[in-house]
Structures are given as C-alpha cells and as structure tokens.
TrEMBL record:
Keyword Metal-binding set for record: no
Listed name of the protein: ENOX1 protein
Cellular component, GO annotation: external side of plasma membrane
Keywords: Coiled coil
The organism's place on the tree of life at top rank: Eukaryota
Coiled-coil spans in chain: 33-60, 152-244
Organism: Bucco capensis
Domain Ecto-NOX disulfide-thiol exchanger 1/2: 151-248
C-alpha cells in the first residue's frame, strides 16, 4: 500500500540489519524483498504519468500564453487606431495623455509576453535541433516559398483594408455632395467646400497608395512563382547529379579504385549544387526598394560588424525592436537572405547546442564580385 510503504520498508530494513534473517525465515524475507522490487515498477509508472502531466501542462501554458498574446495584439491595435488623426483630434489633451500611457504600457507587456513565448519556442527548437541539422536544399526552398506566401497574404489583407477605407471616403463624399445641393448659408457652404476638397485629396492619396500596394503584391506573386521554378530546377539538377554520382561510384568499383575518388565526386556534387543555389539567389535578389531598407542594412551591418562570431535572428530582432517596434523577425531574415554577399548564415554547436547565426561578410564578398 502506498500510504504504508515508507513505514513497512523501514521495518523491513531494521529486521534485516538486526539479523532476523535465518534459515527458517529466509523464504518469508525473500517474498518481502520481492515485493519491494515490484514497487520499483510502480514508481516508474508513476514517474511516467507525472512526466506526461508535465508535458500537458507545458502545452496548456503555451496555448494560454498564445491566447493572451493575441489579445494583447488586439488591444495594441485599438490604441494604434485611436492615435490616428481621424480619431485623435476628437480627444482632449488629458485623454490623449492617458491613451498614450496605456498604449506604451500595453506594448511593453506585449513585448514581454512575446519574448517569453519565443523563449519557449526556442527551447522546443533546441530539442528538435538534431532533426533540423539534416535539412536538405529543397526543404530550405520550401521555407522561402512559405515566407513569400505569408508576405503576399499580408499585402493582400492590407490591400483589402485600404479598399474598404476608400469606399468609406467615397460614401462621405457622396453625403457631402447631397448636403451641398441643399440651401446653406454662405459660411456653411464654404466650410463644406473645404471639407469636400480635403476628402477628395485624401481619396486621391488612398488611390495612389492602393495602386502601389497592388503593384507590390504583383511583384511578390512573381517572386513566388520564380522561387517555385528555381526549386523545381534545383531538384531536377540534384537528381541528375545523384545519378551521375551513382554511376561514377559503380565505375570506380569496377576499375578497382579506392573510396577517396568517390568522396571527391561527392564533394564536387555538393559544391555544384551550392554554386547553382548562389546563382539563383543572385538572380532573384532585387535591389533596395526604399530608403528604410538601406537604413536597416546599415544598422544591421554595424551591429554584426561588432559581433565577429555572429548573432542569431532573435538577438538581432530584439536589438532592432528597440529602434523600431513595428519591424518583425521575418522581415529582417528575408532582408538578410536577399543579400548573400553581405550576410551569410552559419551553424555553430553540436546536437542540442546547435544554433543558426548570421555574420557580416561584405569584406570577403566584395573580392568575388
């Protein structure tokens, strides 16, 4: 019995140490020792059950933390919408001050929860680092495709939001036109004309912004299609090289060569695949799209230059968050991947300590241009 086990095992230990075991009572003591041994199996089963409960508790905590972070994002979005000029002008000075304080406090709590959630995910990634070390080039290309698809979906969402805002402005213009057709005093008519002119200018600006968003969405779609074509080309080339390697190994075995030639052929094959990937990356790497990207490249280059051993993307993102809270880790990583002659990614550590780090390599890359 679990409730009486500690007391019973103490009594049994006292009897054995006191010398109660003799030829007459040996069988009885053997059965009691056997019972103690069977309790070991029960303890191991209890340990396994507790470990399973701990894993379930961790998963439940992570899900709850994700839900809290989502609600924080929604609250911050409400504060950001309140600080826009359309609503901001109607608040008093004291109300604006309170809203600004609440917004900053919510952003700090959101960032803290986000870092905690990323820490949990990093621990899970470190546990799965052995599986990540065996990634092949086609898997990395699939990751690039998913990132481009996520950006295209975000641009589409922003495009829809701008279109709805444009419809709202059009409705306001129609209402102002109807009100203008009625009889007003000259002063009121002048005020309505000014509002109408302001709304027309705002609508023109929204239309231009909508066109730019649509153009950027089309560019992202073309990049996604180009990445898919390059992935297909790389997979076909890898298959051909593997067949050539197999034929070369069979020829080497027939001719009686040693395994060093086969290893040299394997190294050459990997080098050709990497070279082809670098060429494809250079072909699809567009130029700088805005002055903001140039500023980001300068800041990231300065940061990585003082970190000669490299830095992971989470460390770099936490530093950039202090300068611009709206920037995301995905945006930083996509910018680094577009410039392979300035930034390169390396793997450090072994097993559970495996880590992906980015390094500044422009001084070596300019020699190969």
């Amino acid at each position: 019995d679990d409730s009486k086990f500690s007391e019973a095992i103490t009594v049994l230990l006292t009897w054995i140490e006191r010398g109660e075991v003799n030829r007459r009572s040996a069988n009885q003591f053997y059965s009691m020792v056997q019972s103690a041994n069977s309790h070991v199996r029960r303890l191991m089963n209890e340990k396994a059950a507790h470990e399973q409960e701990m894993e379930q508790a961790k998963e439940s905590f992570k899900n709850a933390l994700t839900g809290i972070l989502t609600q924080f994002e929604q609250i911050v979005a409400v504060f950001n919408a309140s600080t826009r000029q359309k609503a901001w002008d109607h608040f008093s000075k004291a109300q604006r001050k309170n809203i600004d304080i609440w917004r900053k406090h919510s952003e700090e709590l959101r960032n803290a929860h986000s870092e905690q959630l990323m820490g949990i995910r990093r621990e899970e990634e470190m546990e799965m680092s052995d599986d990540d070390s065996g990634d092949n080039p086609s898997k990395k290309l699939r990751v690039d495709d998913s990132a481009l698809a996520a950006q295209a979906y975000a641009l589409k969402e922003e495009n829809d939001s701008l279109r709805w805002q444009l419809d709202a402005y059009r409705n306001e213009v129609e209402l102002l036109k109807q009100e203008k057709g009625q009889h007003f005093r000259p002063e009121e008519s002048l005020t309505k004309d000014q509002q109408l002119q302001f709304l027309q200018q705002t609508m023109q600006g929204m239309q231009q912004q909508l066109l730019s968003i649509q153009e950027e969405l089309n560019n992202k779609k073309s990049e996604l299609e180009q990445a898919k074509e390059e992935q297909t080309h790389t997979q076909a080339m890898l298959k051909v090289l593997q067949e050539q390697l197999k034929n070369a190994k069979e020829l080497a075995e027939i001719n009686g060569h040693d395994e060093s030639q086969a290893n040299e052929i394997n190294v050459l094959t990997v080098a050709l695949v990497n070279q082809d990937r670098e060429k494809n990356t250079e072909k699809r790497s567009p130029g700088l799209k805005s002055e903001k990207e140039a500023l980001l490249i300068g800041i990231i280059s300065t940061f990585l230059h003082v970190h000669p051993f490299g830095a992971n993307i989470e460390y770099l993102w936490s530093y950039m968050q202090q300068l611009d809270s709206r920037i995301s880790a995905n945006e930083i990583e996509m910018l680094l991947m577009r410039l392979p002659r300035m930034f390169k990614q390396e793997f450090t550590g072994v097993g559970a300590t495996l880590e992906k780090r980015w390094k500044f390599c422009a001084f070596e890359g300019i020699k190969t241009v």
